[in-house]
Amino acid sequence: MSADPGLTAAAPAAGGLRRSFSWRPRFGHLLALLAAVPMLALLALFIFLVLYAKPAMPIDGWHFLVRDTWNLGNLYADPVTVHGRQMLPGASYGILFLIVGTLASAALAVVFALPLAVLSALLLAELLKGIPAFLVSTLIELLAAVPSVVYGLWGYVFLIPFLDHHLYGFLEHRVGPWLPFFAGPRGSGYGLLTSAIVLAIMVVPLITATLRDGLAATPRELREAGRALGATGFESAWRVVLRGQRTVLFGATILALGRALGETMAVLMVSGNALNYLPHNIYAPISTMAAFIVSQLDSALQDPTGMALRALAEIALVLLVITVAVNLAARLLLQFYGRRK
Amino acid sequence: MSGAILRRRWQSALGWALAALAGMLLVGVLLHIMLFVLMRGGGALSLEMLLTDTQGVAGGLRNAITGSLLLSGLGLALGVPIGVGSGIYLAERRGSLNARVLSLVVDVLVGVPSIVLGYFGYVTLVLHLGWGFSLAAGALTLALLMLPYIARSTDLALRNLPTSLRESAYALGCGEGRLVMRILLPAAAGPVFTGILLAFAIGLGETAPLIYTADWSNYLWNGKFLHAPVGYLTYVIWSYIQEPFASAHQLAYAAALIIMLLVFALALGARLVLLKRYAPAA
């Protein structure tokens, strides 16, 4: 960097003063430059995924989203030229089964996670005090630190046989006759319900931590007022303190949904990796967009025209749009309605 | 009347019982996962495993351990300056429209699935720039993943410092650069460091983005940043547990144990840093 002309022109005695004046805007510019990186990164994500996926888009058009037709085409035939692009004959890309699998597993996970998170947050903020509260909340927060692939390993080796032996049989025979979606066949344990259970464990600590902080920040007077009106401790916690945190709970739940939608490794290892297949009951194998992108890399690399890789980029783009929309909604909600102090 | 009160007392007790049950279930699941990894991994891990490289479906984990540390370490080296810088901007310009928009962007970036970042890294770095599966591509993708976490924790750390600190510094004729570097960052060093530790733990535990950028290698890192795939522990867990060989399973369990120990040590260390700072002196 060359010397600042303003600095050299100044009288020697005033040099120090000039220096401190000219430092501030330069530091501010550096900060602004660094702060622009996340913004540029998010824009670049959209732009490069769109550019890369674009050649694959005309193949199925909007049918990409509503058909179960993921097929790389004939790998051994000569590529054909369609829409000015080389692709394998018979190639077709439709990901409805992935969209259904992703939404169903994430929604079910949130349904399982919500009661656990609300109850454990109440436990941490309203019942436990001191060291027990610290210990339990540290342990629950450690659940969020367990790497996704370790959940996958645990699910693959322990949870699937465990649930298959102890829970799914009961559900099939006792709940199945009443709720058709729980009726058999229950397959091998890999599938929608197992994925949702693992995802639920993974997102519970996110909701618990946010809600616990919200509950703990509630003024003591509200609890006292509740008790003064004759409410029991739990009634005051449930009807007064928790009620005041509805927006926080809602926002945290949407954030958890966003996390569940994009979770990759754990789902990959317990979902059964279904292809072009819609779940007919709650035990059925599924696949999600995130897991599919990983499981299909090897096959997509076999496609000499590279079109399969571009179709995977289409999936990544759909996933990006969904998760950004979900996160944006949650953050805006929390920002505008959640900040009450 | 006494019947109604009795019923409400019962409901209340039932409510707390359910809350305790939920807490016990969650703690139980965590302890089960920890014990599961500890038992299986403890039985599989040996000193020799730490000192030899992977050979097919057997051998050791030296290449994966160094690869994991290199990928996350280099990712951190790239992500920390940018993340801390953006965090300072978010905290010191708070209230301005720019900072509010950027704050939202950081939150959204945290929510972007890691596999999408991985695919982005694959398209731009591996294919477009022609870096191939490599340490540079993997580390840069991890840096992008860690960046919003570091920015957010730095932002919160600086926000918690009293305004009077800034006012007195400016009153003494301090510029913003000196204020941030000499006063604010040292004062918030604990929480900022905590955020960096957690980002490191997140990087170490990641798998999906690396499959698309670093791939896998049986060999120790050869010093090349480009055109050379790198092995890492989480890949071993995912890939080797599905191989039909006992030796492969041993490697997967040992890798899980190492990664869990690293991640938990970082997470607990981060919590202790915070605890020491903010616990009331009693």
What is the element layout, followed by pairings?
The complex is a heterodimer of chains A (341) and B (282).
Chain A: H1 5-9, H2 15-53, H3 57-60, H4 63-66, E1 80-82, E2 85-87, H5 96-127, H6 130-145, H7 148-175, H8 192-216, H9 220-228, H10 233-241, H11 246-262, H12 265-270, H13 289-295, H14 297-302, H15 307-337
Antiparallel strand pairs in A: 1-2
Chain B: H1 2-44, H2 47-51, E1 54-55, E2 58-59, H3 62-92, H4 97-111, H5 114-128, H6 135-159, H7 163-171, H8 176-187, H9 189-205, H10 208-211, H11 233-240, H12 246-278
Antiparallel strand pairs in B: 1-2
Walk me through the structure.
The complex is a heterodimer of chains A (341) and B (282). By secondary structure, chain A is mainly α. Chain A has helices at residues 5-9, 15-53, 57-60, 63-66, 96-127, 130-145, 148-175, 192-216, 220-228, 233-241, 246-262, 265-270, 289-295, 297-302, 307-337; strands at 80-82, 85-87. Chain A has a domain at 96-295: MetI-like fold. A two-stranded antiparallel sheet of chain A has the order 1-2. Residues 1-18 of chain A have low confidence and may be disordered. Chain B folds into two domains: 1-44; 47-278, Orthogonal Bundle (MetI-like fold). In chain B, helix 4 packs across helix 6. The chains are: A mainly alpha (341), B mainly alpha (282). The interface between A and B is large, with 89 and 89 residues.
